[in-house]
C-alpha cells in the first residue's frame, strides 16, 4: 500500500509538471523537414526583432510555455532561418504544424485570435487576386498604348482601394472585442484619416484598452489631432544638406509646403515636377518649400535633389521611416505634405498637382510668372 501511495504521488507530480497552468500558454509544434535545432519565439517592436524565448527541436517537435496579459502577434523563427511564422498568441493550448517548404501554409489550432485573423486574410486574399488581375491588364494596356483601357482600369483600381479600406472598417466593427481589430487598423493606418480612425476606435471594446495595438492607435489619433488643419504646425529641426541644423520655425513669415518624400519613392519622384512648377510660379510671391526626406543614403538623397531640380531647402536625419519629423506629423506613407500659412498654421494637407496650384492661386492670386514658362 505504501509503495502504491508513493507511485501515485510521483505520477501526480509528473502530471502537474507537464500540465499548463491557468493564465499560461503552451505551444506544441512540429516542423517537417527539421529533426533538430533551435527555434525562437520573437516579437517585432518598431521594426526591430526581440527574442523572447527559445526551444530545442527534438525529432521535429518543440514546445514553449509562458504567459501574456492580452493576446499579441508573435513570430517563430528557426535558428539561421530566413522565414518566420506569424501568429496570434494568447494563454491557450496551441498546436502548430509547419513545413519549411511552405511556412505560409502552417496549420495553427487553439488560438481564437488567429482564427479571426485567418478569416480576414482569406477575405483580403480574394480582393488582392482581383487587384493583381487589374494591374496585369493595366500593364498590357500600357504596352498597347491603350489610354482608354488604362483609364478604365485606373478607375477599377481606385474602386478596389475603397473596397480594401471598407473591408478593414467592417471587419474591425464586426470583431470589435478581438485584438485583431486594432491590429489591422494600426497596420493599415496610412489608409485612414483622423475621422476614420476616431470612428473605428470608438467602436472597439473597452476590454482592449490593455492592448498595445489600441494604445498605439490612440497615440496616432493624438498625433493627427495635433497636426489637423487649423492647428499650429509643430516645430522640428533636422540637418540640411550641408549638415547644419535647420528648423521649420525659421521659415515663419512665408507660406510653406512641408514636403515629405524620398529618392526611392517612385510616386514622390513623379510628383516632384508639380512641386517644381508650383515653386517656380509662386516663390516670388512668398511661397516656399521644405523638403523632408525619408532617405537613409545621403548620396542617393543628394542625387535625387539634383536630378529633379529641387532648388529649395532640404533636411533629413537619414533614418528612413524613423524620420523624427515624419513621426511628429504621423506620416505613414509618402508622398505626403502639409501647407502652412505665414503664421505656421496648417491650412492644407496632401495637396498635389492641380490641387496645390489651385490652393496657391486662392492665397496669392495669379502666379508671378506666366504658366507654361520656365523660371
Describe the structure.
By secondary structure, the protein is of the alpha+beta class. It is built from 10 helices and 15 strands. Strands 10-9-13-12-11-14-15 form a 7-stranded mixed sheet. Strands 4-1-7-8 form a 4-stranded mixed sheet, covered by helices on one side. Strand 7 and strand 8 form a beta hairpin. The N and C termini lie far apart (103 Å).
Give the number of helices: 10
Helix content: 40-55%
Shape: elongated
Derived structural class: alpha+beta
- Name the poorly predicted regions: 4-20
C-alpha end-to-end distance: 103 Å
List its salient traits.
alpha+beta, 7-stranded mixed sheet, 25% strand, elongated
Give the arrangement of secondary structure elements.
Blueprint: H1 2-18, E1 25-32, E2 36-45, E3 48-58, E4 61-66, E5 72-78, E6 84-89, E7 93-99, E8 107-109, H2 112-143, H3 147-174, H4 180-187, H5 194-202, H6 212-226, E9 237-240, E10 245-247, E11 255-261, H7 266-282, E12 287-293, H8 298-307, E13 313-316, H9 324-328, E14 336-340, E15 346-349, H10 353-364
Parallel strand pairs: 1-7, 11-12, 12-13
Antiparallel strand pairs: 1-4, 2-3, 2-5, 5-6, 7-8, 9-10, 9-13, 11-14, 14-15
Amino acid at each position: 500500500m505504501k509503495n502504491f501511495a508513493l507511485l501515485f504521488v510521483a505520477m501526480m507530480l509528473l502530471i502537474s509538471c507537464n500540465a499548463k497552468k491557468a493564465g499560461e500558454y503552451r505551444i506544441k509544434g512540429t516542423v517537417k523537414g527539421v529533426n533538430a535545432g533551435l527555434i525562437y519565439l520573437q516579437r517585432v517592436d518598431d521594426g526591430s526583432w526581440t527574442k523572447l524565448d527559445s526551444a530545442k527541436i527534438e525529432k521535429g517537435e518543440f514546445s514553449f510555455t509562458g504567459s501574456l496579459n492580452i493576446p499579441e502577434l508573435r513570430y517563430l523563427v528557426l535558428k539561421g532561418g530566413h522565414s518566420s511564422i506569424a501568429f496570434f498568441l494568447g494563454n491557450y493550448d496551441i498546436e502548430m504544424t509547419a513545413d519549411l517548404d511552405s511556412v505560409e501554409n502552417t496549420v495553427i489550432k487553439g488560438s481564437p485570435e488567429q482564427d479571426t485573423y485567418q478569416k480576414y486574410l482569406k477575405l483580403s486574399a480574394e480582393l488582392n487576386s482581383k487587384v493583381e488581375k487589374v494591374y496585369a491588364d493595366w500593364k498590357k494596356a500600357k504596352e498597347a498604348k491603350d489610354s482608354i483601357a488604362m483609364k478604365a482600369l485606373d478607375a477599377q483600381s481606385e474602386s478596389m482601394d475603397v473596397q480594401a479600406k471598407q473591408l478593414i472598417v467592417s471587419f474591425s466593427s464586426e470583431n470589435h472585442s478581438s485584438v485583431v481589430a486594432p491590429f489591422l487598423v494600426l497596420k493599415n493606418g496610412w489608409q485612414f484619416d483622423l475621422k476614420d480612425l476616431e470612428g473605428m476606435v470608438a467602436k472597439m471594446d473597452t476590454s482592449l484598452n490593455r492592448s498595445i495595438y489600441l494604445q498605439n492607435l490612440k497615440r496616432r489619433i493624438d498625433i493627427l489631432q495635433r497636426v489637423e488643419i487649423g492647428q499650429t504646425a509643430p516645430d522640428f529641426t533636422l540637418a540640411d544638406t550641408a549638415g547644419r541644423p535647420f528648423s521649420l520655425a525659421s521659415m515663419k513669415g512665408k507660406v510653406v509646403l512641408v514636403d515629405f518624400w524620398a529618392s526611392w519613392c517612385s510616386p514622390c519622384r513623379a510628383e516632384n515636377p508639380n512641386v517644381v512648377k508650383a515653386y517656380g510660379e509662386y516663390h516670388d510671391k512668398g511661397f516656399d518649400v521644405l523638403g523632408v526626406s525619408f532617405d537613409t543614403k545621403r548620396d542617393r538623397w543628394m542625387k535625387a535633389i539634383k536630378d529633379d531640380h529641387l532648388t529649395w531647402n532640404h533636411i533629413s536625419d537619414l533614418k528612413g521611416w524613423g524620420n523624427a519629423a515624419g513621426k511628429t506629423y504621423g506620416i505613414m506613407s509618402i508622398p505626403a505634405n502639409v501647407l502652412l500659412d505665414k503664421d505656421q498654421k496648417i491650412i492644407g494637407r496632401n495637396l498635389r498637382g492641380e490641387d496645390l496650384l489651385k490652393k496657391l492661386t486662392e492665397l496669392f492670386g495669379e502666379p508671378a510668372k506666366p504658366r507654361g514658362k520656365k523660371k
